[in-house]
Amino acid sequence: MNSPAPVLSVVIPLLNEAGNVAPLIDEIATALQSYPAVGEAFEIVCVDDGSTDATADEVKRARQSCPQVRLVRHPRRLGMSGAIRNGVRHARAYWIMTIDGDRQNDPADAPRLCALAWSKGMERKVLVAGIRVNRRDTLGKRLASRFANGIRKFLLDDNCPDTGCSLKLFQRDTYLDLPFFNGLHRFMPALFSLYGHETVFTPVNDRPRKVGVSKSDFAGRAIKGLFDMIGVIWLIQRTPAPDKGREE
Known about the structure:
Blueprint: E1 8-14, H1 21-33, E2 42-49, H2 55-65, E3 69-74, H3 80-90, E4 95-98, H4 110-118, E5 126-133, H5 139-156, E6 168-171, H6 172-177, H7 188-194, E7 198-205, H8 218-238
């Protein structure tokens, strides 16, 4: 017999995060188990995006103490958006939360995102996105992020000051209806708005990376981001408000 679907699926994209993923899983489980609206009714979908270290083995060991953990593996690297996409595809819950695997997002913020989304009912069409305060990245990374966010916010008018924060909560079906492309995770507020969802932004804690190294390529990401921006602007101008109709 299949077990009931969880209330929440937490999707974690991972690339060479051995040393981070086990304590992150512990933190997520602790935060959700203490939140009455979720309790034990959650799952953690870890997506190993072609890691060459012991990330997958660490996830398997964590599953021994946290049975809600699941592991999805890519034989080669697909990137952040691809990892999130496949994690959401494998997820069983109606509501999805994404969180970075480097432990810079704080799982203690997870219940607050859920409370904001569900305050008007579990069927509410909303994307809740974290906005990092007191950024703990390097000065160069903070300046690059601020510049990119400023351009994106101006051109897309998505009202989001920090779309790069991975801590987000949304409905599975709406996300899977979005057109997929590499870089999708950076444009979710604009596309969720296009698909008729409310967007809510809330400050979240940002922590320094203590284990491993950042996978960001600022120059390469800036060039790709520019092409992605042009594509998203085209999508917004050419995509009518989605309406699936009603069967009678």
